[in-house]
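Page 42, continued from yesterday. The earlier attempt failed because a stray header line got pasted into the input along with the sequence. Redoing it now with the clean sequence only.
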Amino acid sequence: MNAKKNIILCVDDEPKNLALLDFMLTPKGYEIVRAVNGREAMARIREQKIDLVLLDIMMPEMDGLEVCRMIKENDAYRNIPVIMLTALTSKQDRIRGIDAGAEDFISKPFDQEEVLARIRMLLKVRGLNDSLNTAYNNITNLTALGKDIIKTFNPMDFDLISKIDGIIERTIRSKSDMADKPQAVLVRLSGEKNRYKWYQYEYVFDRLQRNPIELEVSLKLQDNDSKLFFGNELVVETKFGSLMDKLKAFNIQISNMVCYLSNALCIFAINYGREVSKYDAAVLESLVLQTLFLRSLSSQVRETEDAFAYTVHALARAAEANDEDTGNHILRVGHYCTIIAKKLDMPDKFINEIRLKAQLHDVGKVHVPSHILRKSGKLTPAEWEEIKKHPVYGSNIIGNHSRLRMGNSIAMTHHERWDGSGYPNSLGGEQIPIAGRIMNIADQYDALRNARAYKPAFDHATAFKIIAGGDGRTIPQHFDPRVLNAFKEIASKFEEVYERLKD
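This time it went through. Structure tokens are written below.
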């Protein structure tokens, strides 16, 4: 990459002085911009990126001190070094220049070596300040990203590509950004059967676009190995010549690059508007590692949740081993509860939880003797009292852990009735938790659809009629009116679930 020329603004109302500065500085590789007065100088600063200003003090209309103050009072320009050019040598004149914000003074007539030495020194300081500001901005961005992650991270809904999009959006240069950032970013993601997916990111009309591209490039990475790389044109060509050749087909020319390399994820940030350094590589690595950590954490949480759901289901199935119901009954009631909860506009968290925890409603039957559960004739009063204990048994088995609080509530209250005629505690109305009220109608529907020792299996129409209108044994007053109305409106979905999951 060709070294970027530093741009020096020379401000003097004497053309011969401007010509002299041009003669001194241009052969040394500096790009010279001229201005003959203060107003023109400020216009040049607003128009382009100026690296240093050589500013004459004695000018008509607006002198150099006023121009210097205007530069230093503007947040966008205050880091531009200003060297005052002056024939004034008094102590008071220099103090006025220092008060205006000037970094240095050069007396007329100019000494070429002194001018060049002072310019080199101030440009070096400017570069260090720019690096410091960039580092500060990067730290600020990393902090902001961390806050955003904490606020929005959902391990059960983690999507790697969307998180990468977020990284790129903070990393890549948009039209409104300075050249501190890369112009484009390439991403390689691991896929199935050792195949990789490549994406090109760039801003088009100030909108970030992610476009898939077809690339076959071997990066020769070991398993669980990750590498950082940064370099400018010659170094990049030596290290990634094959990649550079392939990218020419996509009209991508690489001047410099910072990249994070691993088998799982590679990110190439290319064409910064300046030379790149190890600090750029460290920032990119930090962003990538945050995302990979979140992916790992999400995967672990999902595995834990899967194991938890499996345990809940296994416990529910074990409880039904001696009952007339089969495993599909517990699956069906979970779906029924989900349908009603959605109709009632319950929160997503509630909907997801009741789908799983509804399976625990009859877990207490594990303590009820099997000869009672399977009895073909009418139950004796003593046997019926034993059956009515299963909600309490279930609550005791499930316990009081916060993760199982809804399961405990459902087990204890799914036989309570809105009119207070249920068991085990004869609760009524709003005393019954909403999860128990939903479960009550779901369990009732499924019981009507299945054959029992004391009744045949009813079809959907009959089950609907009994719940909605009553048959003496079951009456509408048993159910929360809101839950009952929801059931009436979406009962056809109950039928679909039953037919899909019937034994």
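Notes: The first strand starts at residue 7 and ends at 11.
Reminder to self: strip header lines before submitting.
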